[in-house]
Design a protein that fits this description.
20% helix; alpha+beta; 7-stranded antiparallel beta sheet; Alpha-D-Glucose-1,6-Bisphosphate, Chain A, domain 4; globular
């Protein structure tokens, strides 16, 4: 499964990309994020890996993230792994006037075909991107 989602953010590209990898502030926009655990390297640097740990009721969900390549402020490629699914996200950030255009090119590989239509995955991606957009646009340094 492959798709692309584009979201304009009304802030400077340098601020957008620095907040995108700001581990201390990630919980302010990543819904349910409880903590970040590093496995290898400094998470969000090229070659690093770790877990994003989310609280789901009484249990925790560990989402493994590996950074394939960090070329910020231009782009960052991240690979997420969890329960039979691998999700590769190529995030690019482009200045356009007073905005930063964030494009996420997403590909999924599943051990078992998902029961949900692709449109649901695209909607979930867009919702996450819009949460980040709202956080950045409301951010006061």
């Amino acid at each position: 499964m492959k798709y692309s989602v584009k979201v304009p953010i009304n802030r400077d590209k340098k601020l957008v990309t620095s907040l995108f990898i700001d581990k201390a502030r990630m919980g302010q926009w990543e819904k349910g994020l409880e903590r970040i655990e590093s496995i290898e390297g400094d998470l969000f640097e090229t070659g690093s890996s770790g877990y994003l740990v989310f609280r789901l009721g009484d249990s925790e969900l560990h989402l493994k993230v590996t950074v394939e390549k960090n070329n910020l402020p231009g782009s960052i490629i991240q690979i997420y792994e969890m329960g039979g699914a691998i999700n590769r996200c190529i995030n690019t950030f482009r200045k356009q006037g007073d905005q930063t255009i964030w494009t996420m090119d997403v590909s999924f590989e599943f051990d078992i075909a998902p029961q949900l239509p692709q449109a649901r995955f695209e909607e979930k991606t867009r919702m996450g991107m819009i949460m980040f957009k709202a956080f950045v646009e409301g951010f006061e340094a």
